[in-house]
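Page header: ASSEMBLY MODEL / two components / 789 residues total.
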Amino acid sequence: MNSNHQSNYKLSKTEKKLLRKQIKARHTLLRHEGIETVSYATQSLIVANGGLGNQVSRNQLLPVLEKCGLVDALLMPPNKPYSCVRYKTVEESKKAYDTLNGKEIVDDLGQKIILYLNFVEKAQWKELGLQALPPGLKVIEEIISSEDEKMLLESVNWTEDTDNQNFQKSLKHRRVKHFGYEFHYENNNVDKDKPLPGGLPDICESILEKWLKEGFIKHKPDQLTINQYEPGHGIPAHIDTHSAFEDEIISLSLGSEIVMDFKHPDGMTVPVMLPCRSLLVMTGESRYLWTHGITPRKFDTVQASKGHKSGIITSDVEDLTLNKRGIRTSFTFRKVRQTPCNCSYPLVCDSQMKETPASFPESDKEALQLEQDYVHRVYEEIARHFSSTRHTPWPHIVEFLKALPSGSLVADIGCGNGKYLGINKELYMIGCDHSQNLVDICRERQYQAFVCDALAVPIRSGSCDACISIAVIHHFATAERRVAALQELVRLLRPGGKALIYVWAMEQEYNKKKSKYLRENRTSQGMKEEISNDTSVQELLVKQLPNVGNQDSAHSVSSINDLQDGGCNSRNVANSKLPIHTNRTSFHSQDLLVPWHFKGNPGKDKRVEPFGPLGSCDPGPVFHRYYHVFCEGELEAACRTLSNISILQSYYDQGNWCVILQKV
Amino acid sequence: MRLLTHNLLSSHVRGVGPRGFPPRLQATEVRINPVEFNPGFIVRMIPKVEWAALLEAAGNLHLIEVPKEPIQGYEHNEEFLRKMHHVLLEVEVLEGTLQCPESGRVFPLSRGIPNMQLRDEETET
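Prediction written out in full:
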């Protein structure tokens, strides 16, 4: 539409076409994203086709939008083919609506894109600002009629399988029935060689054909699980086994609506309302990476405002209300996989994790791959949760930073979420990390940070007054790489500059006294949680430790002599599998994988939910992170291999070995 | 990314060594972020700045009012210090690129974050 907007009682052919496309965009947004547009002017607009998900970047879109007025905010949800813009005034927003509808711009790949704009209400804007549906997730409403719903519900004969192991005598758990293939709850998989006779019920077959034809689904499923949930029933959060089923998993909700919770490994939770007669379609990330589950309860918290059906439940407290649950029956259709899964989420994939058991690396290349799989990928996935766990800066590190002279240039190599970047305002601190997601968090906190590798730090030599490396070097898989990381730290320092290094200690007891973590291993859930997740989350207050300071150097020196011939008790034999550490126990190996629990707080969640009628337990996916824990004196010895340094201090702090060195 | 940060960055492409400094800065989005003036801090920072690199970067951003070098007695010259404070700490490059002057390798800079990660083939080791 051009700015010389003619009287709108008679639209030209082009204008009619534009209007049709605009309406189509509106419907697509509603159907696929739960976004409701309004026909009256507001300050906020949805820009369909102008999103990160279709390769339109902020610096392409923003100038275009700014031509129409003052942009208050531009929200570009990741992976979405739209964005939201809020103008300072309704007039400016109207101008954008009039002039930019049908506007052609060029995307990142040089392709022409046409933008379609629609007004949205403030409440919708807030919702979008907070959350977006998990990628690959769709809820299609009213996909079947009330008559068909009734017919389907009546077709389920719950009483016939009396001798079948699926028959539930107690009413404690939801009821289930399988068609096509039997689903086994012991291993959460199907037996591909033993299909059930009869296949899927005939009525289902015709409904599925219809959905395929109408494009609601892309593949024809061959397995059906019917679940009946009475109020109070639920299902624990889980990812459907990758090796069992193909990408598209669909679930038809009958009888009652319900709220299903989707959770990302980094902790983000999105509650999604599934109305009656709606079809939930999970593909891609929502199928392979996010867990889904239903909390066992009798009421759900839902949107109070009318007209809001499926989609995300807002976190706007004023618009929530309770909804009593009824009996919900779900028909979940899946297609059984015949080949191993090859998705792009290997960390949570049982096919891919089985194929590559982690072993002690024999070469630099293997070490690099191990670090890629068991350090970098994991941090990228858990970044948000990792950052949100309580992070009290450790006192000795704060002390080190506060003691530096004003105006010092300090680099934090492996800065994570920027925990230490703001400790001393008199310093100029820059942070770097391998994880883009963690660096993003630093940026959100207004720190100076960039993405790089700790073995190739892009900072000019001799420019830093100080460096810190906190809980980083223990992620390198060979001694050579660990020394190389230390070398980089020293390279950055100016002569006289100091570096502080913290690494996880093998010895979780010091001076023959066990750390609190080990002593209270049965009762201290919080401690277990700390150790199992990350060294920097450890809040081990080991009061029994002797005073940290130079006395410790004396203590350490004597044990360094022991180290000459590898004083540390457990030596790894090359080519052997890396052991998986059991939380709450002392380390038995220097090189190991430490589990990070997907749900985040396994200790705090006292409820143990049986997975199904058979009551089998599934703790959910787990990420393994690689660590090389250091023996007493090992860090110091590694530092001493560098020629141009002197060690100022060497001590033990909260389960870590620490060194302060100075470049000569 | 502030200009003081840029002043510390150096390309680490295999073989370039110290010739990776300074990375050539191109900006498509720049923002001015007011920062509280701390003269003592700036005085201590001045000797650490690589001036030629700063001038080049400021030039690429078309910044005016950048002193060509530290003037005599700068420690007490508030006008000079304020100018340097502005150039070093208040100019933020949000979108753009950093280019290795030796190899030509371009590193992206997005949302204020430079991504200096090298692909495996490009690393020193």
